[in-house]
Amino acid sequence: MLRISNIKLPLGAGDETALAQALKKLRADKSAVTSWRVSKKSVDARDKGDVHFVVSVDVALKNEDGLLKSLKPGTAQKVDAPTGLHISPAPCSGPRPVVVGFGPGGLFAALALARAGRKPIVLERGERVDRRKQTTDRFALLGDLDPESNIQFGEGGAGAFSDGKLTTGIKDRRCGAVLKELYDHGAPAEILYQARPHIGTDRLPKVVAAIREEILSLGGEVRFSTRLTGLRIRAGQVEAVEYTDEKGVGEIAADAVIVAIGHSAADTQQMLFQAGANMVQKPFSVGARIEHPQALINQSQYGRFAAHPALGAAEYHLSPRLPDGRGAYTFCMCPGGIVAPAASRVGGVCVNGMSPFARDGQNANAALLVDVRPEDFGDDHPLAGYALQRVWEERAFRAGGGGYFAPVQLCGDVLANRETKELGAVQPTYRPGVTPADLRAVLPAFAYQGIQAAIRAFDRQLKGFALPDAVLTAVESRSSCPVRMLRDSRYESNIAGLYPCGEGAGYAGGIMSAAVDGVRVAEAVLGER
């Protein structure tokens, strides 16, 4: 196929117009086309008087090589059609590999192993519960892969599969394969070409379910309500994993264990540290979710084109450097979404964000975060960052008044250093509810001051960001893992057979990077690296 990039497409034009422009650049007739697709589509809103799409088109034609030679260099480039994961069969007569965790890292590691014929055993601590039986002290962030129930998580948290944002900054050939697998398992076709692909909270569970079913069909197992509690190690090599489930304590022989536990499994990290796995502190971030009317964001980003049906809900991504040298940035921006509960321990409040595929809610929200450095930890223990998270989340619980209500402060009050007494025009989306408060009682001083500076800076970049009635909901403390499990070039820990993977190991920062890391680690287990 030939890829023709940087095609300007008016908002009202269809994909056929993009094809026509591509063929014009190629000096080719449509009769020569055997197949084609839009491979990338993004919005160019730098000029508010001329908002348009920028598109790349992949075209398969007769006599491609001859045509490419006749073109001016840079007009087109040869590319391959998108494909999913291709894993060589690697059956083994020894113990089956164990995958711990079923977020994006564990999911794709298990899929790769299953395709190789290794029949992985997945341990997932989440339990299936009827939605009507959910309690307020444990919150489900991930649908349980069918319409009638949810997975509910304990200390480990729900991982990243809660919203389906597929944006990533990594450059890896496996990214395209991960997108293709998600599409092949039910994700919308748009994820294959959107510059900022997104599946949506409402559609993602069925996609995960379809991948799980393939793993099961290939002989794999997924054991829910099963918690990793120990490793049996001999001469520096893993021999077995110990676990607890609803029936009690058990053991599985395994010489390859992929640990894809997510960024919130502090208890499992503690067990692995005590077992001898090498770990180091890692910087992370803390802050709050900020909510604006989605209409305000649309207007600021798209000007007079804000209501154009081809555009949908606008996004933003902002990151100035603060006066004290710390970084501040918006993260996991959710157009037309909600602020969601992400508590995973009793007596703590933590928030996240979600958007359905349609992104049609009244509010936009994003995490507004400030860097937390190892020197802020106050302790050189590798797991000290988890202790900080616990402190802030317990403060948020107290400031919210109990009942897992979240403390909120209006943007205008944050800038004026005053407690919020009542809400304004922006209605918070967080459930079970919110309590007007002063976030200085929740956040460390450097983070609160950083948020103040960031709001002022962001308002210069995105008009209206400092809207006095915008709502900040605290605390967002789980954007990334505060620890890194060290691994070598073969992706192994210092404990042979133990493979740290994904966000909980400190090697990923979102769904795509975690999924790609899962594939890489599976390849290492299979001897393909």
Q: What brief labels describe this structure?
A:
six-stranded mixed beta sheet, 529 residues, FAD/NAD(P)-binding domain, single chain, alpha+beta, five-stranded parallel beta sheet, Alpha-Beta Plaits
Largest beta sheet, briefly?
Answer: 6 strands, mixed
Overall pLDDT level: 90
CATH architecture descriptor text of the largest domain: 3-Layer(bba) Sandwich
- Strand proportion, as a percent range, falls in 25-35%
Question: Could you name the CATH class of the largest domain?
Answer: Alpha Beta
CATH domain topology of the largest domain: FAD/NAD(P)-binding domain
Instruction: Report the structural category.
Output: alpha+beta
Biggest β-sheet: strands ordered side by side in the sheet: 17-20-16-23-21-22
What is the share of helical residues? 10-25%
CATH level-4 homologous superfamily of the largest domain: FAD/NAD(P)-binding domain
Count structural domains.
3
Cα distance, first to last residue?
29 Å
Continuous helix count: 11
List strands and helices in order, with pairings.
Layout: E1 2-9, H1 15-26, E2 33-44, E3 52-61, H2 64-70, E4 77-78, E5 98-100, H3 104-115, E6 121-123, E7 127-130, E8 142-143, E9 149-152, H4 174-184, H5 204-217, E10 221-223, E11 227-234, E12 237-245, E13 248-253, E14 257-259, H6 266-274, E15 279-281, E16 284-293, H7 294-302, E17 328-334, E18 338-341, E19 351-354, E20 363-372, H8 384-399, E21 406-410, H9 411-416, E22 434-436, H10 445-461, E23 471-476, E24 483-485, E25 498-500, H11 511-525
Parallel strand pairs: 5-6, 5-14, 6-10, 14-25, 21-22
Antiparallel strand pairs: 1-3, 1-4, 2-3, 7-9, 8-9, 11-12, 12-13, 15-24, 16-20, 16-23, 17-20, 18-19, 21-23
